[in-house]
Amino acid sequence: MTEKLSSLTVLMVSDLAKSQQFYREVFGFDVNEWWAERGGLEGVALKLFQAADPAAVRPNPAPQGGGYPVDVQVYTETWAQLDRLYEEFRSKGAVIAVEPIIYEEGGPWKEFVVRDLDGYHFAFGGTDGPKF
To answer: Which residues form a coiled coil (predicted)?
Structure first.
């Protein structure tokens, strides 16, 4: 028997109220006192904690050898879904850290990256259906 599991990412934030507002208004998350999520706890789920010290807010750095930092990777089922998310976030004033890009290897794979108030980077991406 295979158990169905889900997870959430915990982020230390510098201003909990501002972060909750950002995730609600820009990312379209459902936000309450326990978590921020979009698509239920089996979708994209986060736990936002108020950092006791600003030094505790530590987004990932860019990887060795180049590239851009990613703290949370979100998978989409189609490029149409990905494009809708990009337009939604852009229209709500999100900071697009990496504009949509297509990588031929691995799919091809298409993604873009959004930066939140504390510098956390969310990469949204996926393939456009099965590769033939």
So the answer is: none
